[in-house]
From TrEMBL:
ATP binds at residues 36-43, 153-156, 182, 190-193. One of its GO terms (biological process) is pantothenate biosynthetic process. The keyword Amino-acid biosynthesis does not apply. Keywords: ATP-binding, Cytoplasm, Ligase, Nucleotide-binding, Pantothenate biosynthesis. Catalyzes the condensation of pantoate with beta-alanine in an ATP-dependent reaction via a pantoyl-adenylate intermediate. InterPro entries: Cyt_trans-like, Pantoate_ligase, Pantoate_ligase_C, Rossmann-like_a/b/a_fold. Homodimer. The reaction proceeds by a bi uni uni bi ping pong mechanism. It catalyses: (R)-pantoate + beta-alanine + ATP = (R)-pantothenate + AMP + diphosphate + H(+). One of its GO terms (cellular component) is cytosol. Pathway: Cofactor biosynthesis; (R)-pantothenate biosynthesis; (R)-pantothenate from (R)-pantoate and beta-alanine: step 1/1. Pfam families: Pantoate_ligase. This is Pantothenate synthetase.
Length: 286
């Protein structure tokens, strides 16, 4: 922890862009951490990584309406800018960019980014408008906060691929840094949505990580069949109970290409509903 000074809070695109340009003109390397707020230790680990590599660290806090489908949790998504700013102060964040919806999407707004094949399967199949909303808001944030580096967590594996594809395809001059998933001591991946879990659901939720660890253990002892590894994961989740599975997928690392056998670096992806809460996680094996 490097500082307890409260970060400056900026609400307009014009002001944040000017601050970034001024910092870069003076030779500073700028890092940005895009978030939707409701910050936890996973987010703060991204701030720590940016702090180590950059001279000025900006966190964006914006609950982006275009990445939520009708009936999802946009309205109830936790929002507490004051609490988030205090957490950011504890790890040395310099500036918070917290725009209003009409700052990001002014009246008459009509443009959307389609990132193509990487956004179609898995999360894209279950939430068809989600990645267009993600790509669009991230590109807008990179325009308003034209940092040198942007930091994302590996927990949102497919999102990191979408962002990298968008940056590459549209020649956005920013380096994307993906940092490891941060977990609770019992293995549950940290997520703002964990706050929705009841105490009983919170205990059960660790089964997601446990099931992936089981598959990793089986793979390490020679089991290559994805069908058999998936069956073992499903059996474990059924024994714990309470899960409605969206998918278990095994993909070649750095892609969304499904594999039938674990023959090299492979990412297990899992998404499931537990009560009213949808949880995702992933683990690299092989």
């Amino acid at each position: 922890m490097t500082s307890t000074k409260m970060p400056s809070i900026v609400h307009t695109g014009a002001e944040i862009r000017q601050l970034i340009h001024s910092a870069q003109l003076s030779g500073k390397r700028v890092g940005v951490v895009p978030t939707m707020g409701a910050l936890h230790a996973g987010h703060l680990s991204l701030i720590d990584a940016a702090r180590e590599q950059c001279d000025l660290v900006v966190a964006t806090i914006f609950v982006n309406p275009t990445q939520f489908a009708p009936g999802e949790d946009f309205e109830r998504y936790p929002r507490n800018l004051e609490a988030d700013a205090a957490k950011l102060a504890s790890c040395g964040c310099d500036i918070v960019f917290a725009p209003a919806v009409d700052e990001m999407y002014p009246q008459g707004y009509g443009t959307s980014i389609d990132v193509g094949a990487v956004s179609r399967p898995l999360e894209g199949e279950r939430r068809p408008t989600h990645f267009a909303g993600v790509a669009t808001v991230v590109l807008k944030l990179f325009q308003l906060v034209p940092a040198n580096r942007a930091y994302f967590g590996h927990k949102d594996y497919q999102q990191t691929l979408v962002v990298r594809q968008m940056v590459r395809d549209l020649n956005v001059p920013i380096d994307i840094v993906v940092c490891p998933t941060v977990r609770e001591t019992d293995g549950l991946a940290m997520s703002s949505r964990n706050a929705y879990l009841s105490p009983d659901e919170r205990k059960r939720a660790t089964a997601l990580h446990d099931s992936m660890q089981l598959a990793a253990q089986l793979a390490s002892t020679g089991e290559r069949s994805v069908a058999k590894l998936t069956a073992a994961m499903e059996q474990h989740l059924n024994e714990v109970g309470g899960f409605v599975l969206d998918y278990i997928a095994f993909v070649r690392q750095d892609t969304v290409e499904l594999v039938d056998e674990v023959t090299g670096p492979t990412v297990i992806l899992i998404a499931a509903h537990l009560g009213q809460t949808r949880l995702i996680d992933n683990l690299v094996i092989g």
